What does this fold into?
Amino acid sequence: MITKVTIQNFKRFKDPTEFAFNPQPITFLAGGNNSGKSSLLQALSVWDFARSVIEINKKSSAFLSGAVMNGIGVSAEEFSPMALPDLKLLFSNLRVFTGAAGEGYALRVKCEWKTEFDPPADRYLEFGFALSNDRLFLKPTDSNLAAGDTVPRLAYLPPFAGMGRREERMSHAARKRWMGRGLAGAVLRNLLYDLWEQNIAAREKARGTKKRIPKKDLATIRREDGWEQLLMALEEVFKTGLAMNEFNELYHTAIEVNVWDGQLVSKRFQKTKGAPEKDLMVEGSGFLQWVSVYALALSKDLDVLLLDEPDAHLHPALQGHLIHKLRQLARQNRKQVLLATHSTTILSEICLEEIFRMEDRAYLKDEKDRVRLFVGLGSQYAPRLDPLKRSRRLFLHDGISDLEILQAWARILGLAWPENLVCWKYTKDRTAREILFAELRAEIAGLRAISLQDRDDYPFNDTAADLTFDHLPLDQGGLRLRRWRRRNIENYLLHPTAIARASGRNEPDVRALLLDPHGLNIPADFTRSDCAQTLANTDGKEILTKHARSVTSEFGVTYKQIAEAMLVDEIPDDAKTLLNQIVDLCT
It folds into this structure.
């Protein structure tokens, strides 16, 4: 995955400008108009263009560290990343190379990425560009690549436009030229035909000499093949099927792709009786935008997708669905997506660490950053209410430690922390929580919530093994009131072996500290919900962080590190019970 991009003398980025990205499936590029979102994506597209030109003309050995080569010149007609009236517009200073000292390859784009080696290694490759007369010259200007290293392959997709009545079978170079002109619709049928052709080849290979494809192989194709995934997505989202006609270059001049309305019949998606087949272009721009993004994301030849406002023509509900599917595909196919957007619908729903604010060249850190971003976009944002209106799932907790510890345990247990859960710190008592829930539910139909509180001084026996208390039902009109059986969540971290593992100390040292000065001898039933009352009543927060001789002060280890160091059989039963209830709430 690309971890850093450095741009110099390209459009608005005159001085060397760095963009450092998190190694994650999707990064959302956000910011006001003219903040550089499209320029960044276009710079990466130009970088990939240089990679392809040099690879074709000089082979990939030209990318290796220490390789020397003269620049390769391309004309304006051969330049495909984007449509420009003049190649000078690529350069911040709009100057043609005159031969003066210091000019040379002044426009530079450098990509750094992590390899998939074990352990991963840092690699980088920079291309320089110079304009002489009417030709653009390009060459590698910096690299640490060694033989055997692979270079990421990128694809730039602008907002959907350019769908024509007829579409010829095109080379990859021709497709890039159309997309670079901002006419992604002109190559949509080609993208779909590639997926269909790969599906036919996969089916023929699986069939071999047999009359039918074995059920196991057919199930694998339906699960992993790009065409099959696209069909299932269209059936699910639009209740629409695709029909592809085989293209024979001896007889056909255009690719034919038809759509038809369908419905699920006996677990199979079938054409609605009497529904006609229509050419793809008759569908709305939202449908076509959705299909073009999805088809590109399914391409096996690409490592990084550069999407410029893929939500432009989509209804808010479809925007959310597209992002959900993109994230699934990126994780499944090990792709990286850099996505520029102005959509407040998308930006209000996703995690802070996925949003890269262009003005700061950094990811958002807290909800105040998100509010500031929305103000810059000319919109209002309520950090908790807006996402809650969409997800309708709420988790009320006592503090950030609850959240961080539970999320760490979920990862260890292999439970996916729900993406549709709004987590809300709320320290007031049970009655106040019931009032808050009632007020929220009056505004948000279908709201469901889990409320979690420390037990503190409440009697031990008033909390049941399912974490309900005071003989309350499991669910009260959508509100599930829960309380730890132990005094607080930090109590569940007092596992000597886990503390020793997290701190790098010996377990006897840990037990000695817990015993003196804290007088705590950890029993063998530590993980059980019905553990000894003396353990359940212990103030774990005091022992871990507040006492003069706390675990943190003595061993230099935090509650989060201890939680992350625990093994599956060291996580207490109460925690497992609660996490399963949270997952159930959001399913």
Remarks:
- The first strand starts at residue 2 and ends at 8.
- Residues 32 and 378 are 9 Å apart (CA to CA).
- The mean pLDDT is 91.
- Residues 390-586 form one domain.
